[in-house]
Amino acid sequence: MVVTGNEDGAHHVISEISGALADLGYTIPGQAWTYWHLGPGPGPDHLDDERGRDWSHRTGRAMAANLYGVASALAARPVGAPPG
Questions:
Q1: Would you say 36 and 8 are in contact if contact means Cβ atoms under 8 Å apart?
Q2: Global pTM value
Q3: Which domain holds residue 16?
């Protein structure tokens, strides 16, 4: 998940979407998200400031690696549908 926003709003959006997806039965690996990191509070627009981009790129690469790892594991050993 890539959220366009600073820390406060991004964490809120990430928790709401992750919670909803988990309730539906999705597998959500750790660090399955990234956002533009400039710390809490309002800040400049992503396009107007270079700060925080390195962090976003690093967590984006970690996100992709974790998603691929979990997808590979689930492909090798799928989890069946719930009973009922």
A1: no
A2: 0.71
A3: 2-76
